[in-house]
Amino acid sequence: MDWLDQIKWDEQGLVPVIAQERDTGDVLMFAWMNREALRLTAERGEAVYWSRSRQKLWHKGEESGHSQQVHEMRLDCDHDVVLLKITQRGHEPGIACHTGRHSCFFQRLDGQQWTTVEPVLKDPDHIYSK
């Protein structure tokens, strides 16, 4: 059996993926992959995701320059979530989020409100302006 056949793909042919920084353990982002994205990620050693909004493959860093080197891929016990252990690379090391922050998980619930707890490392207008 092909290793990709062991994954429980959802009804859209996607699997949720968590990108975790290998050195710190920080969870940097959550995204989706289809079969081709997961195969390409394994082949290239760099994260390739499926963009649901654009309906196309998205090689992380193709626009921002903030790519993800994949060191390890893990599958959960139910075979329906993939964990990538990555090193975040780029012009400004450590930026994984399109908001210019280290992590997409930069808001914390404090009482009854969300509080931003991570700074913007680079203005996203400067990251995506070409």
Question: Any overview of this molecule?
Answer:
This protein is mainly β and 130 residues long. It has a domain at 6-93: Roll (Ubiquitin-like (UB roll)), CATH 3.10.20.810. The chain has two helices and eight strands; from the N terminus they run ββαββββββα. The strands form three sheets. A four-stranded mixed beta sheet has the order 2-1-6-5, covered by helices on one side. Strands 3-4 form a two-stranded antiparallel sheet. Strands 7-8 form a two-stranded antiparallel ribbon. The protein is globular and about 45 Å long. GO terms for molecular function: phosphoribosyl-AMP cyclohydrolase activity. Keywords: Amino-acid biosynthesis, Cytoplasm, Histidine biosynthesis, Hydrolase, Magnesium, Metal-binding, Zinc. Catalyzes the hydrolysis of the adenine ring of phosphoribosyl-AMP.
Order of strands side by side in the largest beta sheet? 2-1-6-5
CATH topology of one domain: Ubiquitin-like (UB roll)
End-to-end CA span: 44 Å
As residue ranges, the low-confidence spans are none
Order of helices and strands: EEHEEEEEEH
Task: Profile the largest sheet.
Answer: 4 strands, mixed
What is the alpha-carbon Rg in Å?
Answer: 15 Å
Helix content: 10-25%
Which percent range describes the beta-strand content? 35-45%
Task: Please count the beta strands (DSSP E, at least 2 residues each).
Answer: 8
In CATH, the architecture of one domain is: Roll
- Principal-axes geometry comes out as globular
CATH class of one domain: Alpha Beta
How many H/I helical runs? 2
Average pLDDT for all residues: 94
Family: Belongs to the PRA-CH family.
GO molecular function, one term: phosphoribosyl-AMP cyclohydrolase activity
Organism: Roseateles subflavus
Protein name: Phosphoribosyl-AMP cyclohydrolase
